[in-house]
Amino acid sequence: MADADSIDPAPSAKPSAVEVAKAASNYLKGDIPSELVDGNPGFGKGSVQLLKNHGTYQQDDRETRKKSADGKKSERQISFMIRTVVPGGKLTADQLLAAIDMGDELGNGTIRLTTRQAIQHHGVVKGDLKAFMQRVHTNQLTTLAACGDVERNIMCCPAPIKGDPVRDEMQKKVDELARHLAPRTRAYYEIWLTDPDTGEKSRVAGGPETIDPAGAAEEEPIYGRTYLPRKFKTAFALPEDNCTDIYANDLGFLTIHEHGTILGYNVLAGGGMGVTPSAAKTFPALAKRLGFVPPEDVCAIAEAIVKVQRDFGNRSDRKTARLKYTIHTMGLDAFRAKVEEYFGKPLAPCHPDDVHGFDDHIGWYPQGDGRFFYGLNVENGRVHDTGTFRLKTALRRILRDLAPGVRITAHQSLLFTDLAVTDRERIAEILHAHGVKTSEEISTLRRWSMACVALPTCSLAVAESERVLPGLIDSLEPEVAKLGLSNDAFTVRMTGCPNACARPYNSDIGIVGRTAGKYTIFLGGRLLGNRLNEQYKDVVPFEDLSQEITAVLACYKAERHGDETLGDFCHRKGVEGVRTWADQWLAGSRGHG
Ligand code: SRM
Ligand code: SF4
Hints:
Number of strands: 21
Largest sheet: 5 strands, antiparallel
Distance between the termini: 68 Å
Bound molecules: siroheme, iron/sulfur cluster
Structural class: alpha+beta
Low-confidence stretches: 5-10
CATH topology of the domain at 446-592: Sulfite Reductase Hemoprotein, domain 1
Radius of gyration: 24 Å
Strand content: 15-25%
CATH architecture of the domain at 446-592: 2-Layer Sandwich
CATH class of the domain at 446-592: Alpha Beta
């Protein structure tokens, strides 16, 4: 195996600009320190790339940009998105309260729970970046490696079933692996966590367990000086509960357990969703079953896979740099052999168990220790106060009054844990007093839907997502009720571009932004997350989405077998079969209208 620091980032091809920037950056420092204080509203190109590894994206509000365009070149109002790592989505009430406060005091007054159980803030100005990072650190969390070419926030089933040691053990493994794969660079501490008054390199009070600045070194023993060729994502799940969507991850650990004991983990590799439609070489992929490891080998196998990706991933073309392409290029057997070489021993074959359940944990459940947890559906993960809908204030009240444990789910929602039986009524009272529905009062359709951020902040968005999905669900709800499908659970996932941040390509109904106001519809994935869907219709105007989806649901209602799920039905009938039936139904209903 190559020494981490002697790796040639692209042995045979010209390294991409990002690789050049990383190589010259002295472990992600680059020009960030000087540009941070240069008085400009933003950073230069090189720093913008490096900053991602520090957990922040330079953005601008695309709407403000448009509005101020009066024929002249409009000025971009630069601000920053900051993502905070939350392994397994596990927080305390105080930590979530502090995150909400930070959004109010330094951000745009909202926070966003992400599809990977993390927290995003938007609208932070450059002058406040350092103060923001310090507050995140004091809040025992970090933004280091929330974005960038490194291991990202590791996902874990968040349900706190106390009688079940398996979930506890799994979360401990997640924390251990997060610590193991955390970057060691000192740049983060030097740039963001220096003493605000003296400028001396001292540790700001607090700091998360995953990060130990005292142990930070100039070297990156796992990543090397150019880190990974691309982002790298890991999730842990249970066969009976794949709520973290492990098949969509670069690396998945499926926890194999018997009678409350973890036997080990099936290791899955090479999942990923993002595609570039204009580049045929790109594709979404489900992770492949690679082998089985005992619990004590989790960090070692993860490190081996990360290092194979480090050494063999494509560093000249970022479009094909994810692990799924490395595996595609090498072939699965050759990839497995290389991983075994780095791991130092052969991998056992996978345990036959696979995912067979999925629970979003929304609603009221016993924890198994006399306490309860409550899953609150947060629509598209956005915590805000708008008009009479005051979710942010309601959350503040719940967090202060009940001081529950908190978990963020991979469906952008929240669990309040360790509750007393009497808290159920109290939570409902608080939500109602702030114009927020309880989870029991929202439709199954809304509960299983999610949308990515998209406009106005995401620079890659070609269409709306978060801001239009609620309206689409509003218009679908009565149709679903008319068809008698109100209790059927199926995933509706929308994104503002094909990068697929809400994982649309393994959902029952995927709606992917194609161009302004138009979408591609995908059908035939499934709740379990272990099947990709297929393109159903392309370039569908937003105004037509509701009736197009209603027609699909009518077809499902008319022709499904027994309790077949929507995704399974569409997969069996085939997108063409569904299209023919649905188009006839649409023509008929238009004729009658
Ligand atoms: Fe994502 C890029 C938001 C989960 C695939 N993603 C982005 C950026 C940073 C846009 C950018 O590069 O300028 C978005 C920030 C928008 C904004 O204004 O906030 C963004 N991604 C998100 C979040 C916040 C969506 C959400 O609604 O929750 C999710 C944050 C997760 C986290 O906490 O770490 C988010 N992104 C995902 C997922 C789902 C997942 O990981 O389970 C995917 C698909 C899985 C995958 O990685 O393949 C995903 N995001 C992408 C891609 C395509 C990557 C690819 O391999 O092609 C990009 C673009 C890129 O990397 O070039 C991207
Ligand atoms: Fe932005 Fe596209 Fe991701 Fe949505 S899917 S957040 S539009 S990159």
